[in-house]
Amino acid sequence: MWFLRRMPRIPWTAKKTNERVLNEANKKRSLVRTIRKRQATFLGHVMRRGKLEHLVTTGKFEGKRSRGRQREKIMDGLATWLGPGKVSDILAAVKDWDLWRDMIANAYKQGT
């Protein structure tokens, strides 16, 4: 954020919020989008291999569930980010590499 304040020479004593500086520079925060994109590419890599990581990311392993609120699964977070669709649809799309790349690119461009 410091470089966006430095370019238009906004002093640190000026009481401008980071959101206001971003609006003036016509920029958006992209950290969450970048994280989701990397998660999606990693998920595609893991699902195509089909080993132990595949079981862990889909959440299909034996044992008792822990008490309290359940953790959000990677698949659920990516299902909401990639758009309307079921987790089973996403797992089917992972097998087709070109379709999976297009889905990730479209979701990243939309900025959701």
Please tag this protein with its features.
112 residues, mainly alpha, 62% helix, elongated
Structure notes:
With 112 residues, this protein is mainly α. Helix content is 62%, strand content 0%. The protein has seven helices and no strands. 8% of the residues are buried. This is Eukaryotic translation initiation factor 3 subunit f. GO terms for molecular function: translation initiation factor activity.
Topology:
Blueprint lengths: L1 H5 L11 H7 L6 H19 L2 H7 L15 H9 L4 H9 L1 H14 L2
Helix pairs in contact: 3-5, 3-7
Distance between the termini: 21 Å
Annotation, overall tally of beta strands: 0
Q: What is the number of helices?
A: 7
Task: Indicate the mean pLDDT.
Answer: 79
The level of helicity is 55-70%
Helices and strands, in order, run as HHHHHHH
Percent in strands: under 5%
Overall form:
elongated
Keywords: Initiation factor, Protein biosynthesis
GO molecular function, one term: translation initiation factor activity
Organism: Plakobranchus ocellatus
Protein name: Eukaryotic translation initiation factor 3 subunit f
Summarize the structure.
Helices cover 62% and strands 0% of the residues. With 112 residues, it is mostly helical.
